[in-house]
Amino acid sequence: MQPGEKLSATGKGCVPGEPVNLTSNGDNVGHAYADGTGAFTTAVEFTRIEAGRHTVVADCGVRLTGDVEQVVTSSSGGHSGTLVVLVFFVLAGITVIRFP
Questions:
Q1: Which three-class secondary structure state does DSSP give residue 9?
Q2: Sequence-ordered strand ranges (E) for 12-51
Q3: How much is the average pLDDT of 26-37?
Q4: Distance CA 71, CA 3 (A)
Q5: Within its chain, how far is the Cα of 86 from the centroid?
Q6: Contact at 8 Å (CB) between 17 and 36?
Q7: pTM of the model
Q8: Handedness of CA 24, 26, 27, 28 (dihedral sign)
Q9: How far, in Å, CA of 63 to CA of 66, rounded?
Q10: Over the stretch 73-96, which tens digit does the pLDDT of each residue have?
């Protein structure tokens, strides 16, 4: 998965028509209903991002588990070059206006 892509959970073996509650570390991360064959698919939405492996538990009369690896990345300096150029043009503009 790439950052921003949707995460979903798919499972089978539930009691048909049962609600499926997905949790991870005690937080609710998804909800669905099992179809007539006992299968489900639903979006998984974490309320907080913490680096590491997280177990997602789907409880629907039986307990199904799966792991999700969250990776936190950072960017350094992405806008600093743009800021320097912007400040340069602002200062140059002030100089031109002040000293015609």
A1: strand
A2: 19-24, 27-33, 40-44
A3: 93
A4: 9
A5: 33
A6: yes
A7: 0.66
A8: positive
A9: 10
A10: 665 555 444 445 555 555 555 544
Task: For residues 40 and 19, give the distance between their C-alpha atoms in angstroms, rounded to a whole number.
Answer: 10
Contacts of 37 (CB under 8 A, 6+ apart): 12, 16
Residue 87, φ and ψ in degrees, nearest 5: -60, -40
Mean of the pLDDT values across residues 14-24? 92
Q: Which two tokens stand for residue 63?
A: 């307990």
| Rounded distance between C-alpha atoms, residue 26 and residue 5, angstroms | 23
Tokens of 47: 């309320």
Distance CA 42, CA 95 (A): 59
First to last CA, the chain: 56
DSSP state of 3: T
pLDDT of res. 49: 75
Q: Contact at 8 Å (CB) between 22 and 45?
A: no
Query: What is the β-pairing status of strands 27-33 and 52-59?
Result: unpaired
